[in-house]
Amino acid sequence: MRILVTGHNGYIGPVMTSMLLAEGYEVTGLDTDFFTGCNFNDSAPDIPQVQKDIRDVEVTDLEGFDAVIFLAALSNDPIGNLNPDLTYEINHRASVRVAELAKQAGVGRFLFASSCSLYGAAAGEDALDEEADFNPVTPYGVTKVLFEQDVSKLADEHFSPVFLRNATAYGVSPHLRFGLVLHDLVALAHTTGLVYLKSDGTPWRPIIHIEDISRAFIAALRAPREVVHNQAFNVGISSENYQIRDLAEIVREVVPNCRIEYAPDAGPDKRSYRVDFSKIQRMLPEFKPQWNARLGAQELYDAFLRAELTYADYEAPTFKRLDRIKELLDAGQLDMNLRWTEKVAV
After folding, report:
1. pTM tops 0.85
2. 282 close to 226: Cβ distance less than 8 angstroms
3. Which fold, 2-266+273-330?
4. Burial (0-12, 13-18, 19+ Cβ within 10 Å), 206
5. CB 198 within 8 Å of CB 62
6. Phi, psi (5° rounding) for residue 16?
7. Distance from C-alpha of 210 to C-alpha of 15, rounded to nearest angstrom
8. What's the confidence (pLDDT) of residue 120?
9. For residues 279 and 284, what is the distance between their CA atoms, to the nearest angstrom?
């Protein structure tokens, strides 16, 4: 099976492509490469790749593939808030166009990296299943909803979209990201001795390791068509719903000689949701997650020790998506539409 992975040089992509290769898939990547050189380690796989903005994808880029795994996006809430119009252009309109072209090219299965963030600000303590109402609070979350709604209409006997709503990711990657809750807590504990909370610690967040996200995508690739056709799956583990203060306590126990501290203005974060992951366990029994928050915190701490990570490293643009984009903008390498300028050979 030939697989095209868009956004393969982002945070999840290198880990997922490595696991796809280990399973015997033939993998090609497509990425605009905003994060070239932002390497935490050198374990990214060497695969055929196309350097291209998803806004410029043509049907010929998609011909000959059995499946597309669509990871490409402006990848988090802060970038989405930087320019909401661009977020809608890229994460919604351009992404839907790629799905339309994939259908035209004869791609049979289209796996989309959606997000539990589309549940947004969820009232109450009930865990949300795939039938729950959407309540996104950021442009990033809204575009996930719009994409799912539009691409589900493309489904037919030849084209099967599958929407994998990932919990908040964590885990070591060749292209590491900060701005993810467990990463930030461990990095600050390691570099400053403080498990520093910017909220009051009460918001709920489901979390999942990027290797387990990759296992979910592989299970969705392998599943019979009738099981996954035009279906949404929450990707995570029901026992891995945590309040932020619980994650802080895990980090305090993993990282030596640190203590928990709350920001002076810490208050509740309106992004709070618990998620029910029973559907993916029931319908995709091949999905067998292997990580939990404590194992993830230990993995991150060990990796930061090996890398001799400093607070300056944590604060640098290298591993912060919004700061990296701003760095490229300030250097004139990207224009205000987030397209490479002529100063950059791409």
Report:
1. yes
2. no
3. Rossmann fold (3.40.50)
4. buried
5. no
6. -65, -45
7. 7
8. 80
9. 8
